[in-house]
Amino acid sequence: MPSESELSDELGVSRATVRTALAKLAANGFILRKQGDGTYVNLRIRETSAQFGNLWDLVRLIEGNGYKSSIQPLSIEQRPAAETEALALSLNTADSLINLRRLFFADQRPVSLADNFIPSALLCEPLESIDGHLHIRDIFRTYFHQDIVFIITDIRSTIISAEVHRFLGGAAGRSILELHISFYGKNNLPLAFGVNYFDDSVLRLSLAQAWN
Amino acid sequence: MPSESELSDELGVSRATVRTALAKLAANGFILRKQGDGTYVNLRIRETSAQFGNLWDLVRLIEGNGYKSSIQPLSIEQRPAAETEALALSLNTADSLINLRRLFFADQRPVSLADNFIPSALLCEPLESIDGHLHIRDIFRTYFHQDIVFIITDIRSTIISAEVHRFLGGAAGRSILELHISFYGKNNLPLAFGVNYFDDSVLRLSLAQAWN
DNA sequence: AAGTGGTCTAGACCACGGC
DNA sequence: CCGTGGTCTAGACCACTTG
């Protein structure tokens, strides 16, 4: 690629501006930079399905693989928290939580069963008004008046359970990815905990990383 | 956290310098920033085992989980490439490649079997001189005179095979993570292809991401 | 030696959030 | 309204790679 000075001349902006733009491209793996050498285009980036910014955003991941995404809400229930759920959400056992269960499709094919657990105490609108088709980000904005600031994801491997198999289909007893996602808002407040059963035989989860 | 202006005053540097430093912290999830609001410390970052820069760097991942890492070389062989291997490395079928097989330990416990495939044509030193205890980065520097510039990783889930089970132990028939890693050098040149069988019951693979 | 990206300064204005 | 981070300018020097 042209050097920073060439770009700033051609585009009529300062070199600092060019640098911030190139830094964003480099952070997502689109270009590779080396001091004293130059800036190079990553020709393999199209072989990946995710970038760091959108990782674990199922909708973008499905569409990054070239499919059309859709969400089917399965159930929205309110019930007392089990011990592990309470722990993840900093709740007391038996505090009320909302369990939102949804199925994500790539084209017409189910690729992920997502279970989300949210403390009932955070709800600002009637439970019945929740639209399960929305992106989790918009669900929090609209019905909980909270912004998701960051998430922490655990990646695990598991054998598909009979219950999950009912929704995802395919071979029984095969292994799938299990992503445990903790959602946090401002002040490091736990907003939700999610378990995603993710069929990696349908959807590739791949990403590029610069090394060193 | 203090604002950018406060930091630049207190530290006696320009605001631009403060910004580049904070940007690096934010990219790795250590701090969270919001325009018009402020900069906040991510109190949960210690619960993660990986940052974006060191993801899929097994040595750092093992030590990030609090273990001591060690590498046991199992075998270094030279043989013709099978079809899938040739495809991944842009070789012709039956071109010679080097198969480096190693076992990674966390403390004394095996956590990952790593198979790496490298075109023989890239080798610059005698095959026998290769030290299998080294980091893959140093193996390429020393024996192939190449720098790894970026990698692309596929994350999959699989049932542990009898062969892998011999090395990793644990319950037979359980599911593990299978990471397919392509290593690239300058000019988007494929340097190597690796398959990592990764026991996620021993080592947590978790990371933080800012959202939006 | 020449050119690259990396770091840095000392200013300026803008978009956004909270009060 | 004020303070925050986001963007931008027009310079400067340094560290590194390559021919």
Name its key features:
homodimer; 212 residues; alpha+beta; Arc Repressor Mutant, subunit A; Chorismate lyase; 2 domains; six-stranded antiparallel beta sheet; two-stranded antiparallel ribbon; 9 strands; globular; DNA-binding
Please give a structural write-up.
The structure is a homodimer of 212-residue chains. With 212 residues, chain A is α+β, with helices and mostly antiparallel strands. The first copy, chain A, has two domains: 4-46, Arc Repressor Mutant, subunit A, CATH 1.10.10.10; 50-208, Chorismate lyase-like (Chorismate lyase). Chain A is built from six helices and nine strands; from the N terminus they run ααββαβαββαβαβββ. Chain A has a six-stranded antiparallel sheet. In chain A, strands 1-2 form a two-stranded antiparallel sheet. In chain A, a hairpin with a 3-residue loop joins strand 1 and strand 2 (38-41). In chain A, helix 1 (4-11) packs across helix 2. The longest helix of chain A has 13 residues, at 15-27. The mean pLDDT of chain A is 90. Chains A and B meet through helix 2, strand 6, strand 7 and strand 9 of A and helix 2, strand 6, strand 7 and strand 9 of B.
Task: List strands and helices in order, with pairings.
2 copies of one chain form a homodimer.
Chain A (H helix, E strand, L loop, with lengths): L3 H8 L3 H13 L3 E4 L3 E4 L16 H7 L4 E12 L2 H6 L7 E11 L2 E11 L16 H9 L5 E10 L2 H7 L6 E10 L5 E9 L6 E6 L2
Antiparallel strand pairs in A: 1-2, 3-4, 4-5, 5-8, 6-7, 7-8
The first copy, chain A, binds a DNA duplex (19 and 19 nucleotides) through helix 2.
